[in-house]
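Protein modeling request. Please complete all fields; requests missing the sequence field cannot be processed.
Requester role: graduate student
Desired output: 3D structure, token encoding
Chains: 1
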Amino acid sequence: MTRTAAPRTPQPVPQADLFGLSLLPGLAYGDDVITHAEETDLIACIDAADLTPFQFQQWEGKRLTRSFGWTYDFQTGRFATGDAVPTWLLPLRAKAAAFAGLDACALEQILLIEYGPGAGIGWHKDRPVFEHVIGISLGAPAVMRFRRREGAGFQRATANLAPRSIYHMRGEVRDDWEHSIAAMDAPRWSITFRSLR
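Delivered output (197 residues):
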């Protein structure tokens, strides 16, 4: 009788912080969701996707972005339908949805980001209209930081995002924790898929 291995399910990321090992409920992580060749092709597609500098009120970020499906204008606070999802993103969207246990069509918003040297993302929560947030990292490794207010200070944790890795935020880590990406010296790209509530 042959025995088959049980399918691997995403596990929460162990987070190292001042208090030792800490798990953030609602955070899942996986390595090597794509191959090196797929990563190279995706970076080329992102570079050809007419990204523009990120604008927040009168401030211009060091990163380039482009949204599909839905857009959020940080100048006006307007949330609106955007350009259709390009066909080259559909296979990756299917992988992201499978990792999160969702239907691919539920991932209605996609954000492409190119991080230049010295670029990161400050502390924030994704807009309340979004529920599931699934990110895929390309290029340089990154550190994703988390914090949640606790008394007069913050409870903190970090996750190392390897190239070609995937993470999924939902529930507590999505709604109760802020997150940020530490600035990097080397180029990095990311593709973020979001579902609507």
